[in-house]
Write a structure and sequence with these properties.
Blueprint: E1 14-25, E2 28-39, E3 43-47, H1 54-62, E4 69-74, E5 77-78, H2 84-89, E6 92-94, H3 107-114, H4 116-126, H5 130-150, H6 166-178, E7 184-188, H7 196-211, E8 215-219, H8 223-229, E9 232-237, E10 240-245, H9 247-251, H10 254-262
Parallel strand pairs: 3-8, 3-9, 6-7, 7-8
Antiparallel strand pairs: 1-2, 1-4, 4-5, 9-10
Helix pairs in contact: 3-5, 3-6, 5-6
The structure holds adenosine-5'-diphosphate (ADP) and magnesium ion (MG).
The site of adenosine-5'-diphosphate has 10 residues, from helix 1.
């Protein structure tokens, strides 16, 4: 379809470094000695057949589960012993394959709540006056409205999240993760279950956010989306890193084709 994106000019030092990471569940290694880096400003794809270990890798990066071995460095700091919320405040954002917004809260409140932890930490530290609290609340509301605008959901800001379609939930999730000012966002299958029209909006919004300097690591089965968005792609199979390269290179790599054909269909 469209040409492969050029690597971003800003692609620089590693935001995230994964070094010999292993995750065992019982006798089975879901992630088996994987190493890679995500560079500042890039959109890096992570593909592979079902069961390859992609979501487990996200769980490890985000701090939802501890690694059995290896190191994970975020902006140079080893974060393996840090809980998920510390990694969020270090600039790591993550969206889920199946977003679960608070169904009865408005879109605006859903986005504002995503930034609450940060504000809460500041409030405790500074003993803000009620007037300052109100000012913070106004600023947070404005920021949330700007983010809803960014993901084209402004007109639904006061509606409850339960009315959203699957694709709109993915967009809301993107606005929520942006509320914490991430430097890198891990996206788990943003195209899954999304209709063609909304998919174009999602691709466009990811590009726009990337153009603001935010790095992405993207798990996705939709190969068209991967080749349109990603500067570079990693392929996992059976817990290991099979290869890496430009989207067109990995798509015709015989090892990749075999992994998809041999695996439990992607
Ligand atoms: N919490 C868990 N307990 C036991 N096995 C798990 C757990 N999470 C993932 N696995 C296993 O690890 C392997 C990789 O799974 P996953 O990371 O979800 O793959 P992918 O996202 O690439 O489809 C699978 O065999 C899966 O069954
Ligand atoms: Mg998965």
């Amino acid at each position: 379809m469209s040409a492969i994106p050029d690597p971003p000019l800003s692609a620089g030092p590693a935001v995230l470094q994964v070094r010999n990471v292993v995750k065992r569940y019982g006798g089975m290694a879901a992630v088996d000695d994987v190493s890679f880096s995500v560079h500042d400003g890039e959109i890096l794809g992570l593909i592979g057949p079902n069961g390859a270990g992609k979501t487990t890798m996200f769980d490890l990066l985000a701090g939802s589960v501890p690694p059995t071995a290896g190191r994970i460095l975020l902006n140079g700091a080893n974060v393996c012993d840090e809980p998920a919320h510390r990694r969020i405040s270090r600039g790591l954002g993550r969206t889920f394959q199946i977003p679960r917004p608070f169904p009865d809260l408005s879109l605006l409140d859903n986005v504002m709540l995503a930034g609450q932890d940060q504000a809460g930490e500041r409030l405790l530290g500074n003993f803000l006056t009620p007037r300052k609290v109100a000012a913070e609340e106004r600023a947070a509301r404005q920021k949330a409205m700007d983010l809803l605008d960014l993901v084209s959901l402004t007109r639904l800001a006061e509606e409850p999240a339960r009315i959203l379609s699957g694709g709109q939930r993915k967009l809301l999730e993107l606005a929520r993760v942006m509320m914490a000012d991430p430097r890198i966002i891990l996206l788990d299958e943003p195209a899954a279950g999304v209709n063609a029209t909304l998919l174009e909006v999602i691709i466009d919004r990811i590009r726009e956010i990337n153009a603001r300097g935010i790095t992405f690591l993207l798990i996705e089965h939709n190969i068209d989306m991967v080749s349109r968005l990603c500067h570079r792609v990693l392929v996992m199979a059976s817990g290991q890193l099979l290869c890496e390269g430009r989207p067109d290179e990995v798509a015709r790599d015989p090892r990749v084709i075999e992994a998809y054909l041999g695996g439990t269909a992607a």
